User: What shape does this take?
Amino acid sequence: MMDQRHNLLFYDAYESFYAMAAHSAAFRSYCSQAFGEDFSQDGFSDVQQIDLILQTASLSSASHILDIGCGNGKMLSYLQRKTGARISGFDYSVHAIQTARALHPFNADFRVGIIGEIQYPVECFDLITSMDTLYFAKDMTNFVSQVKSWLKPNGILFAGYQEGDVTARTESVQTTELTKALHSNQMPFRTMDITRQTYELLQRKRQAALHHQTAFEAEGHREWFDLLIDQTQCALAPYDQFQQKMARYIYIAQKQ
Ligand SMILES: C[S@@+](CC[C@H](N)C(=O)[O-])C[C@H]1O[C@@H](n2cnc3c(N)ncnc32)[C@H](O)[C@@H]1O
Assistant: This one.
């Protein structure tokens, strides 16, 4: 199992990332400044996108939420604080899940698991979230079929989906792998194009990283500062050039 995981895309990088996130005050402060809340984001999910989940799904203490690629569970914890819902999440990073279990011991279930391999019972979740994780599935159509089976009738899949880094930019939202996978699985959905907001978020990430440079260096975390600067280089280009290379969409799909 361990050897297999080390062959998965970015596995070692995410283990180091979540080990750093577990104890870096500079990173917590950077996340709060860049994203509006600290969810230990590696991706592009700011608090506006997560609040949209709350506006989209009617959640209560009777609801059950699953997050795919949940990292250390801080985004789920925010949803639980707002709704009282039971939270479940899985991630292939052992460090991330250790932190998630320590931070959220009640009304929560965190598992080490691989997208496409982990199993849950059918029809047990009201909401499944996937922020920048669906493209790690080896077969997205099969994985969406599995996700659909885990949802209760009328349950919602809420996904943040980026093109231009892990997965290639396609022509439009009509042509993404996720659009094809949802059509193949007869899951009706609506989308929002948030490419412009993502461009602005990347600029905020860069500003926040620069603001925290000394703090990262004082902790011995200069390499994470360098990575953030590298990752946000693309937002220095004019928007027209940026959006030819990158796109970001929110998908809200419903099981019928
Ligand atoms: C881009 S990050 C997004 C994390 C978080 N959802 C967020 O929005 O900040 C991708 C996440 O998926 C996890 N991941 C990547 N590939 C995976 C796989 N094959 N199986 C399970 N988790 C995976 C990583 O450890 C990481 O937590």
In short: The mean pLDDT is 97. The domain at 2-254 is CATH 3.40.50.150 (Rossmann fold).
